[in-house]
Every structure is written in C-alpha cells, then in structure tokens.
Amino acid sequence: MAIRTHRMQFPLSEADARSLRMGDQLIIDGEIVVTAGLPTHQRLLECLDGKEPLPMPLQAQSLFHLGSYSEESATVAGSLDLLYINPTTSTRFNPLMPRLIRELQLHAVGGKGGLDQACAQAMQEVGCVYLSFLGGGATLHTRAVREVLAVGWADMLMHYRVVRLRVEGLGPVTVAIDAHGNSVYADAQAQARERMPAILASMQAQRDRDRLG
Fold this sequence. Notes:
Distance between the termini: 48 Å
CATH architecture of the largest domain: Alpha-Beta Barrel
Structural class: alpha/beta
CATH topology of the largest domain: fumarase
Shape: globular
Number of domains: 2
Radius of gyration: 20 Å
Strand order of the largest sheet: 2-3-5-6-8
C-alpha cells in the first residue's frame, strides 16, 4: 500500500484527524503546543480540577511531547528565540493522557514511543491521532519553527513549560495511532506475542543441542 502524505494546517480539526489512517505521513503548518514534563501534565489535570487556570487556551489544540529551550531574543525586545525542540517518550504519560485528550478535546498528540490502549480509546472517542516524531531529529524539527507565540508556567523548568509555537513544514511525522483505533504499537505487540512461542521453542532446542554436545 502506498504511503499517503498530507500537508495540514494545525491545530488539527476533528474532521481532518478522522480523515487520516495509520501509516499516513503529515507535514505540519500552523500552531502547536509542546511540553516534555510529567509534572506539567499533572498540573494540567489540576487545572481541569479547578485548582488554577490553564496556562493558555488548550481546548481542541495539538499537544506534543516535545522538549524545547528558548532564550530572550538578542534582536527583538520582549520576544524569545527557540534553540531546539526534540521529542520525548510519550509512554510515561499514559496514565494522564486519556483525561487530557477527552476533556481538552485534543485532536492531535504525539512524541515518540506511542501511547497505550486506554489512550487510543480516548483518541477514538474525540477524533484524535498520535503522531510519531523522528527521535533524535532535533535539528530537522527545530528548522520548522517560525515563532514562539506564548510560554506558560515560567516558574517551571524550561523544557517543562507549556510552549505554543508557529511552525512551517514540520515533519514528516507518521500517524502511528489513528482516530479509528488502529495502532502500529498494538500491532507490533500482537506480532511479538504470536512469535514468542516459536522463539522460545527455538531457544530451548538450541540449549538442548548444546547440552548434548
């Protein structure tokens, strides 16, 4: 099957998210929100509990597990220059993401490593895709950043802050979990489970041969 490549404007709409299929590739233009912090995700849930306001409007946004680092601009007073963005592992956010996806009505999330079945179920309900970013691709990803639009929670470590960016030509990224319940990670795990008995039998046969000399 040929890989489909799309260039889409972000934040991604529900309709666009549901039009995508596992394995599709995307080029991203527009606005995205990034953070790499587990404490940040916990704090976002506290916002949903009413303990404090959200650091910026996040409803129906695209929230990516990308670490970032910015510094004050040397040329434009009051603005920030972004030095890099780089994907971090999404699986550590598994317990927190289903509620964030549902209550913020997120239509795109992403990072590297994927999310679990509970997250995929929430994504299917609201119309959301998981986008897999190239690990270690900081240089490629950073080149697509055009502007730092907003930074939330300046009291947190730099890469834990919530940062809204304007990007152009970010990607390609891969739809690794689509809004219809299909997941490359679940498929890989199922294939591994199917192959495991044969692998174990082969290992045992080799041990038996080694023991018999």
